[in-house]
Amino acid sequence: MAKFIRIGEAAVFLLMVVVPLALAGGHDYGQALSKSILFFEAQRSGYLPGNQRVNWRGNSGLLDGKASGVDLVGGYYDAGDNVKFGLPMAFTVTMMSWSILEYGSQMGSELGHAMDAIKWGTDYLIKAHPEPRVLYGEVGDGNTDHYCWQRPEDMTTSRSAYRIDVNNPGSDLAGETAAAMAAASIVFHRSNPAYSKELLTHAYQLFDFADKYRGKYDSSISVAQKYYRSVSGYADELLWAAAWLYKATNEPYYLNYLGQNGDALGGTGWAMTEFGWDVKYAGVQTLVAMFLMGGKAGAHSPVFGKYQEKAEMFMCSCMGKGNQNVHKTPGGLIFRQRWNNLQFVTSASFLLTVYSDHLTSARKDLHCASGRVAPSELLAFAKSQVDYILGDNPRATSYMVGYGSHFPRQVHHRGSSIVSIKVDPSFVSCRGGYATWFSRKASDPNLLTGAIVGGPDAYDNFADHRDNYEQTEPATYNNAPLLGVLARLHSGHAAYNQLLPVEVPLQKPIAVQPKPVSTSTAPVEINQKATASWVSNGKTYYRYSAIVTNKSGKTIKNFNLTVSKLYGPLWGLTKTAGGSYALPKWVSSLPADKSIEFVYVHSGPIADVSVSSYTLA
User: The Carbohydrate binding domain covers which part of the protein (predicted)?
Assistant: First the structure.
């Protein structure tokens, strides 16, 4: 059942009308790319460099690893906490690297910043791998960390370091870290060959360790189970690492590994509807399909064809054209789970984008259960997902912090929610942070620019509250796949003349669009129009925007609207006990010449909206 959720803060409604960004190519993907890269600087741990651009952050975690006799200073905090989890960090590095390998030439001046973001991660991963068969997979403890609400610079929580070794294996962790090292080695191959070689050496060792000493990492590092449990096991990471080592080296050993182990390790058997830090099958299947289309499969072509079949099942499921399709919200967003759903949206969008471009280059189409799908349709669907994230959704909300005019202001993030140590160096205690900052009903003092938060629920609802960690907490692996997609969308087809333009519409235009409706009940003017439409299960749904403007010259109070012929959810007004709609609870009045906006979604024509009562102050 749809819930009535507040759509923004009072200042947004009273000072300006929230207007959704353009639906067809109207987003500034270059700006979004710049901001999404900047987010990684806010997640840095360790000694911050002189060129640090997120100035509200300071040095932190400077004794990490010391108690274990190893230097583990650096790396990234994974999300809104102050723990360094190795598995999602390595996946983040892998996906940033893949983004650059596919679309680095389209990143322009941001390429250097993206490479810096990768190197910040790989510098740490090198430290975390001090011996061929030893890898540190976590610094800090999620349980004690979550008990406290402190900025990283004030941490008093446990900084214990946890590792895997031959007696306590972790093939998934070691395999993902090998993949990250191998992928990054390609990124730095030309600009820093010595560093690239060092990364490749670590990748070789880690893959050997992962393959020979098999086991799940969370059985060895049990403190990770509550936060990053390896549900899929380690088989997918072994294939994933082998694929990246082949891509980095062209060595037949790794190609043969993929061919000989595809059946046993699930690469040819599992058809997935998700891709992320835990489940890598769709990613490795896409890579192997690219090897096949690139003529590199050799004697393994029949097996690689099975990988490709499963890769295409993933693509078809995302498009809603397979036998088992992913769920989508009424607004068209891929939806898998309540907690941090956008991680699956950005990763799927990346695979769709990459596969679309490689299909185009190979002059092939996608074959789904419902028929053939042109590569341009994959790219257009990926674009629709990114556009939703950036604001083309029923709430007209950008889920990238700092992008657009209406975005989350109370992010579940310790650093951004507490005053910068550079502004107020007073110590913030473990529990004091909860009392003073976590419970504070106001915007974050530090803007977490570029962060992709968890996102809306299955009905496109979203509550911008700091304690709503399922929806307002960001994560590095939300952003990493998005770098490549944003670069691709920003460049269009300028850099790759064999690629189709990104503006190709996914669906046929709706033949008849509802006409805008204006009504005036002096002294109030109401303007309604359809701002988006889509087809779901054979029905055409419309997103309508209604802008209410006070034309009286005086302040309006006790304002009530009657909304009839409404057959779906409405956002931005408060429903009264009598069934009418009032101003949002946090808006007590509507000053002269000011406007508010509310939105609703249903499959019918424009609803009847009229003024039922008001008083002039």
Answer: 524-605
